[in-house]
Queue: 2 jobs
Job 1
Amino acid sequence: QVQLVESGGGLVQAGGSLRLSCAASGSIFSINAMGWYRQAPGKQRELVAAITSGGSTNYADSVKGRFTVSRGNARNTVYLQMNSLKPEDTAIYYCNAIFQGRYDAWGQGTQVTVSS
């Protein structure tokens, strides 16, 4: 099993930056990829960015050029650097890990609010 804990959300003005962190524990050597999803009120959860154990990254079109996903030196940490934030980025952000090739783990979520 893998457990995830996020941190770093908060309130920021449009154009500002935030950095989210996610720490994994448990069977971290079975993790294949980690990433971030978000869910705004009344909307479905959507992929924001992900990074594989090999370092390949994937981004939603809406965040390309503004957000950067990265992993820490340890295998168990993933970050999301968010720059040039917009009000439409307001959502609960969830850390996700895929492990053992087919299982999902989720964090508890962290609120990001961007004021105009």
Job 2
Amino acid sequence: QVQLVQSGGGLVQAGGSLRLSCAASGRTFSMYTMGWFRQAPGKEREFVAVISRSGGSTDYEDSVKGRFTISRDNAKNTVYLQMNSLKPEDTAAYYCLARWGTRTYWGQGTQVTVSS
């Protein structure tokens, strides 16, 4: 069992930056592929970014490429999402995800609101 505790988020003006963090419990963090998803009101949860277990490989949803950066620190059991040049359409609840084989765990979610 892995528990994911998110922090960061909040209200920011368009063009601003925020950093989300997701800290995992346990000693197997480096075995998990980590990702970030988001869900806007009335919409389905969508993929934002993913990072491999070693951190050597990343992928992003097209609309955030060049603006968001996912990273991880396996020594601290933490994954990050640095969000720059934020847009109002980035407003959503953001969730971190940990996946290892069939095991999938979600963070509690954190709200990001970007004002125009």
